[in-house]
Each structure stands twice: as C-alpha cells, then as structure tokens.
Amino acid sequence: MKREKKRVHAQGAKWRKLDNTAKLFAAVAGEDFGQVFRISAALEDEVSPELLKQALDTTLPEFENFRVKLRKGFFWNYFETNNRDPVVEHEETYPCKFIDPHVSGRFPFRVSFYGRRINFEVFHGLTDGLGALNFMKYLTERYLELAAGEQYKKERESGEGQAGLSGGKRHAPGEAKEAADRTPPAGRGHAAFSGQRTRQEADRRIRERAVSADSYLTYYRERPHKRYETERALAVTGDCLPLDWQSVLHGTVALDDIRALGKHAGVSITKYLAAALLWSVIQVYTDGRTLKRPAALNLPINLRTFFESDTMANFFSVVNISWPAGPAPRDFEELLGHVSRQMDEKIVKDKLEETISYNVSNEKKWYVRIIPLWIKNIALSAIFFKTSRAYTMTLSNLGPVALREDLAGMVRGFQLLLGVSGRQRMKCGVIACNGKLCITFNSAMEDMDLQDYFFRFLREKGVEAELESNGVADREHDQGNYPSVSHDRGKLKKIVNLFYLALLTAAALMGITNYAAYGCLNRGWSLLVMGGIAYAAMTVRYSVMRRANIAGILVRQSLGAQALLVLIDYMYGMKGWSVNYAIPCLILFDVIAIVFLILLNRLNWQSYFMYQIAITVFSFIPLFLWWGGLITKPLLSVIVVILSVAVLAGTVILGDWSIKKELKRRFYF
Question: Which of 113, 161, 490, 634 has the CB geometry, 3.0–4.6 Å to 626, for a possible disulfide?
C-alpha cells in the first residue's frame, strides 16, 4: 500500500468573494470600529489551553470557510485561503477588540480563554451570529470531549490495577467513536475504501461551496425596495470610559420565567425584551413624557428562517424597531403592543426581500463595481455612519444553544457580547443555554443607569437576574471571571496621537518662526522641516502602526522619500538632480527589492505581485516628466522603465496560470 504524500499548498491557493454584507463590514472596520462580536462558553472547570488548542485544530477543518484571511483587491476585498495554524490566546484585554488582519496568523477570528471561560471573537465580515454559534458550539463540544477523556485517563491511572480486573479495555468518552471512524469498512478492499474517501472528498467540496455561498445573491430579485432609516435617533449619553475600556454586565435569568412573562403578554421573548429595552431607554434618557428624537433598536434577523440556506457566510438583515419622536408611551403595555405590531409588519418575507433587493442592487450597478476600492471604502463608510445614527442601540438574540446531553452538565452557560462603537456606545446581546437566558450589556459608558433600570424592571415583573460584571464600571458584581487589565493597550494609540500633535505643533512653530524672520515661506527652511515632519508622520502611521505587507511599506516609503527629495532639490534652486537621478534610483531599488522578496517567499509570491505592478506604473512617471521638460538627462529613467517592464514580464511568464488567477482575484468586480 502506497503512502499518500501530503500536499503542501501555497498560501492563498483558493479564494472567494465576500458576501454582500461582508463588503460593507470590510470597508468600515478599523481600530475605532472593529465590527467584532464574541460568543463565550462559561464552563464548570478551568480551561486547559493545551486541550483548547487541540480542540481548535480539530474544529477548523470542519469549517474550512473560516480558514481564510482578508485581502484587498483593486475593486473589492476578498477572502484567501490561510494555511497557517490558528493560536489560542490568554485573554488580557477588553472584549471585542479590532482583529488586525496582519497579526494572529491573519485569521479573521480570535480564540481565547480566561479561567473557566472560552471566547470566540469573530470579524462580522466572516460570518453572522448563527455561523459563529455553530463554530463555537462545535469547538466547545470538542474541548469538553477532550477534557472528559483527560479526566477519565487520570481516574484510570489513579485506579491502576483495578482496570485489569475488568478483563477488557474501556474507552474514554469519544474514543470508541473516533476509533470506529478511523477503521476502514470491514470486508472491503483498499480500492473500495479509496473510492469511499473520494466520494467523501467530493461531498466535502460540495458542502464547502454551499456553506460559503452568498445567499443574498441567490435570493436577489429585482423589485421595488425601501431605503434604510436615516432619521437621527435618541443617543445613549453620558461620560465615556477611557480609551478602549469597556464595561460588561451579564444578567442571567431563568428561561422559563422570561418565557412565561412573554406568554402572559401574548408575545415572544424577543418582543418582550425589545420593548423592555426601549422602555428603559425612554425612562433613563428622556423626561418620560416627550421624545425629541425616536428611540430605536437595531434588531438583526436571521434570514435562514425565511429562505432555505446552509450558508455559513453572512445571511441576515436588520429592522428598525422604534418609538417615534413626540409623546412618550403612557405605560409599558402600550409600548409593548407598538413593538409587537412593528415586528409583525416588518419581519415578514416580503419586507425582507425588499431589503435584500436594495442591498444587492447597489452592488450590481456597473458604475459602482468599477470604482476603485479606496473610493468605495470612503463612500461606504459615509453611508454606514449615516444610517447607523438611526439607531439608539443594537439588540441581538441568538436564541437557545443545544449542547449534547452528555456534555451539557459541564457548561454553566453561553454569553453573547457585541462590539461597541462611537455611534453606538452600548449594545445588548442575548443567548440561552441549559435553561438559562443570559442578557449581556457591553458599554463604553461610565454610568450603569440603563442596565440598572432594565434589570430592576425585570425584577419588578417577577424575573430575578443573577448579575456578573467585568469590574470596570460595576465592582459589586465582579466575580473575577474577567482579567484585570493592568495595562491599557490604548496607551500606544494615545502616545501616537500625542506624537502626531507634537509634529503638527512643531511644523506650525517652524512656519511662524520662518515667516517672522524672513517675511515669507516661499524658500524658507521651514518648508524643508515640514517635509521631514510629514515623512516621519507617514512612516509612523503607515509603516510602524499598520503592520502592513513589507512590499507595501517599501512602496509607501519610497514615494514619500521621492517627494521629500524633490522638495530638497526645490529648496536649493531646483538643479534637477532629484528627477534626473534620485527618483529613478529609488524606483530601481524598489524593482530589485521586490524581486528579492519574491525569491525569498516563493510560496506566497502573489502577495507582492500587485506592488510589482504599481512600481512598474510608477517607473513611467519620469518619462512623463521628461516629456514635460523637467528631466534633462533621461538615460537612467529609460533604463529603469526597461528593467521594470522586463521584470514584470518575467514574473508573468514564470508565474504561468498563477498570474491569471492572481489577476482575477485582485481585479474582480
């Protein structure tokens, strides 16, 4: 029997387009707005990082659409296969932090642990709540299987000698099943078994395509559509916590109690919680009699409930559930009836199809598709922030988590945390497990007035909540299940902002001094200083803080250096040495450096190809300067153009089909 060779795939061997919603999230995500949410599993015992790593390593192959990294194309972002190994981190900071696409193995998710809790944080562009919940459920069950097996092993070793009296070998939990899975079918030859594996592989590929499909496009129909609400809603106000700090408060209630409360009122749990949250907002942030602006909730809806889909990509919509500006509701029952009617009217298939039609129709417009990505990002960010002001806060209910019966007793509960932003400084996540419903407020506010009123309201209705906090704004209910963040990772951002401010101040002082001494800035030394300051700021912003591709750093630094050299030449009478020699030499250095990078990283050479194209384009700039009469000695410029074009042509020829594939993914629109 021949042993099969393990194939080593290059990074990015496969790629896929982002779904309709992911394109928006990728455009607006950043340090200040991470678009990250977290699902946590609170266990009965301490988490073992070694077992959690094993569980993650066996979970990820079952979710191949998660084995990706986010890349930038010319027109759209896209996901590319990531063959690195994911890591397990010990939680050291606040939840739902921005997931930098250049660190942590470049995965758009983060798995961490603290004490008895496992955390799965995910960039919303990768998947929605249901997709993340499926991953987290599988990861948790796999971990518990390993933990149970480890416990069994310890018990067997402690009872050494007794096991031999039983006359047979016992299997740890899950071992019998795994052994059976590894055993070829009895009575069949190797060829039959190989055929079965081939069919399994084909089935796996079909399933992989299904779970990564863009169901928005599948169910898109041209039809009249309604735009999103843009009227500014009531905002959560008050003093904000220091930069990057977040206050977490969990309220765990009996699922039967809250269900009975909703049943008594004739509504679902989600309707009751939405009304209770709106009621709390109105009572805390208004005088209780008049609303100057509507109080509105952003309510995500799982579209798989209305449209058949197995996708693990995003497939959800949002609805605006609100009480309008004007007179406040007379009592809670009036507000509850209003919320219930809105949800019944808006959460129906026809209305949701209108939303899908609106979202996808914009993406399909040819003049939108051909706009470069950096311009799209600016436009999408402006649109997103304009629509996000129509919500006071977000309420997301993932529903119940059904764990295997033999493992459910090892879990205390699940928790859902939504990342906050400057527009929505507080969000609420709801999830149920083992007969308990966990309502979590994640907030960037110092006060706890809204949370206190909400849980007090439930208590008055007969539903008592067990509270737990992370100790930031509420130390009373801190149970030590969150890390005490002794260092603020936002300090680096503060230092950098102060650095920028210092540079700007220095530039202004130099300009004022120069003008006071010479009466003009035309050829003053301060312009040279300002150029150096601008170059330093660019270096820190795009090369130090960004952790970007080394080729990208090379190109940006080169362009900045070229501008600085031209400024120096200009300050000393524009002798022409900057355009005749300096700029062509810098471009030549870039060409040679990119070649070395490609040779050093041949398995991932495609990541440098776009920069190679950019350098080749830039190499033609001196020719245009020559045509404009600014370059008087063009020989070096001509040589650089010939070399850059020759190197690019060589890459295309040697790259063969890989070049076509790279161009397709980079320039798809």
Answer: 634
pLDDT reading at 388 higher than 90: no
Spacing of C-alpha 412 from chain mean position: 27
Residues 511, 515: Cα–Cα separation, whole Å: 6
Beta bridge partners of 253: 437
CA atoms of 123 and 100, how far apart (whole Å)? 10
Q: Are 609 and 650 in contact (CB under 8 A)?
A: no
In whole angstroms, what is the distance from residue 266 CA to residue 259 CA? 10
Task: Calculate helix-pair angle for 525-538, 550-571, nearest 10 degrees.
Answer: 180
How far apart (Å, rounded) are the C-alpha atoms in residues 67 and 245?
30
Q: Is 318 exposed, middle or buried (0-12, 13-18, 19+ CB in 10 A)?
A: middle
Contacts of 166 (CB under 8 A, 6+ apart): none
- pTM exceeds 0.85 for this model: no
Maximal CA-CA distance, the chain: 101
Contact 356, 220 (CB under 8 A): yes
Q: Are 283 and 449 in contact (CB under 8 A)?
A: no
Model confidence pLDDT, tens digit, residues 89-142: 999 888 998 888 766 668 999 999 999 999 999 999 999 999 999 999 999 999
Residue 117: both structure tokens together: 């809790």
Predicted confidence (pLDDT) per residue in 405-435, tens digit: 999 999 999 999 999 987 788 999 999 999 9
Mean pLDDT of 313-333: 93
Q: Amino acid identity of 568?
A: I
List of residues 6+ apart from 596 with CB closer than 8 A:
none
The answer to whether 401 and 429 are in contact (CB under 8 A) is no
Quick one: tokens of 433?
């497990």
Strand partners, 38: 121, 417
Running DSSP on this structure, what letter comes out for residue 4? P
- The length of the chain in residues reads 669
| Those residues with Cβ within 8 angstroms of residue 574's Cβ, 6 or more apart along the chain or in another chain | none
